[in-house]
Amino acid sequence: MKRKLTLNESLTISSMLFGLFFGAGNLIFPAYMGEAAGKNVVWALLGFLVTGVGLPLLAIAALGSSHSDGVLTLSEKVSRKYGYFFTCALYLTIGPFFAIPRCFTVPFETGISQLLPGSWSKQTSLFAFSLLFFAIMIWFSLRPGRIMDWIGKVLTPAFLLFFFWIMITALIHPLGHAGAVKPAGEYASAPFISGILEGYNTMDALAGLAFGIIVVSSIRAFGITEPKQIAKSTIQTGILACLLMAVIYGITSFVGAQSRPVLGLAANGGEALSQIARHYFPGFGSVLFALMILIACLKTAIGLITSSAEAFVQMFPKSMSYNKWAILFSLIALAIANVGLTSIIAFSVPVLMLLYPLAIALILTSLTASFFHFGKGSYVVMTAVAFICAFGDFLSALPPSLSKAVSGITDIYAKLLPLFKDGLGWLLPVASAFIVMAIWSAIHNRRK
């Protein structure tokens, strides 16, 4: 029986996992954060790494240490019904409803649209590009057995080549000094917390749970079948992938901060990166950036369709085949993508504010379950506390036209929960619930 992965196998799976993680938001959010944070970029980056790297790594570790083969198995520790609710909500959020449509729109609005003649209709061009992107994505997604080769060995190395070509050039020839740039907005008063909330938008803590099913399948494909060795290999490959993510986040945010004295504060991270690429590679920069962002989004979209379809086949084995789920999710994403990037982000933020605390509570409880001997009751209490508190964050993050209607409820949350106005109203209650559960479990087990 094979007991561990070879170095080449570990690197292949890590490259695949990095490729699955690193999509649209992983480029545009740290770039804008760097420009906005300016001299506070280090504090903002540290906050971003907490939610953008630390939480995804803990999610992978939770799957590995609990010997779970996916988010359904892990979340069923709360209850079977909750497992289905959370798994469906997670995959639909990071799949066809929000993340995949964002993979359609980001490369178009930040890269492809810059290359099109000004006389072309933007909406028609977006639809035409979406059809092409859809066709390529679905072609790869209907062949899930080769996803490790396509993403781990082809698309990820191609992306890294374009990325480092642009970023190393920018680091060698900086446009300015980050320490001389005045922070903008919330990055002036609370850069660390702003970085934490910016890391939410990558959706990677949720993706860490979602992509577990692909990682475990890939490890088994290399001949590792013993549960403990699968768990160990899962954590090892997760560490390698997350370290590479941390390096790229650091480079992107610092390049963003250094560019602001000359290029100014862009409207978003996609525009910031496009400006940087055009500055350092006049004439060719727009093409180079478009290729980089297109590959980044394509590989993530393929992984999201694959993992979402496999998860729904696992949950509802008698409903539809994998191919039918993949096609259905792709069609939904195609339709939503043509609504536009701004609308997608506006409606995705409230959902993320609800799901992230639930995911964090589940990850924290799973990681410490064996040490504290947590039972089902502990999972239920942690999840209930997280949900009650996160619901207030959900209401608060709704678009202005909707949030006004529930302002009375959010005012009550603001009075009762510290850090609520910072979007972290769940933090202290969940931490307190965890401490209480740990103490109660220790006393209970000592009596037994």
UniProtKB/TrEMBL annotation:
Segment forming the signal sequence: none
GO molecular function, a single term: L-valine transmembrane transporter activity
Entry's Gene Ontology BP terms: isoleucine transport; L-leucine transport
Keywords: Amino-acid transport, Cell membrane, Membrane, Transmembrane, Transmembrane helix, Transport
Location relative to the cell: Cell membrane
Membrane topology label: Multi-pass membrane protein
Claim: Transport is one of the keywords in the record: yes
Residues passing through the membrane, by range: 12-29, 41-63, 84-104, 124-142, 154-173, 205-223, 235-255, 287-313, 325-347, 353-372, 379-398, 423-443
Keyword Membrane: yes
GO cellular component, one term: plasma membrane
Pfam families per UniProt: Branch_AA_trans
Domain of life from the UniProt record: Bacteria
Family: Belongs to the branched chain amino acid transporter family.
Its biological purpose: Component of the transport system for branched-chain amino acids.
Full protein name: Branched-chain amino acid transport system carrier protein
Origin species: Lactobacillus porci
Protein encoded by which gene: brnQ
